[in-house]
Design goal:
Elements: E1 2-7, E2 10-15, H1 22-29, E3 48-51, E4 54-57, E5 70-72, H2 86-93, H3 103-120, H4 126-132, H5 144-153
Parallel strand pairs: 1-5
Antiparallel strand pairs: 1-2, 3-4, 3-5
Helix pairs in contact: 2-5
The site of one FE2/S2 (inorganic) cluster has 11 residues, from loops.
Length: 156
Amino acid sequence: MKINFTINGKGRAKEIKASTLLIDLIRDGLKLKGTKPGCFEGECGACTVLVDGHAINSCLYLAVNVAGKSITTIEGLGGEDQFLDIVQEKLIEHGGVQCGFCTSGMAMSIKSYSDKCKEEGKVPNRNEVAKSLEGNLCRCTGYVKIVDAAISVCGN
Ligand code: FES
Ligand code: FES
């Protein structure tokens, strides 16, 4: 079947199978390799992307469900000008990146949560920020620096 969608601000049309996973559409169909394949069980968060602004695990999400919707991957986080988004800047500034395998998923989750907080006019505390990242695993950093980065994105 053919679906139309927007990815990183650009309209696309793609022929897919009903069983195609969103991560496969992104990585193989569109050659955007920044979204990482990890557990394929919804446990690690490495595959996190935004669909209409909501963070989802693309390994569990059927591509057919993005028809008519807007996807943002790590490649589109900084917008068309190709500059780094504040989320990426803060992850670097706080030393929240080591091997980098979790980083694109972490960045997308931080982006989704910080945008939601801004919409609601909320400045979350450290526990709330850490809880928002529970779906993203990191084997390197011990999380403290990632949470520090996320807190500074959220306005603390
Ligand atoms: S690869 Fe999707 S949650 Fe791990
Ligand atoms: S930086 Fe290596 S898994 Fe997070």
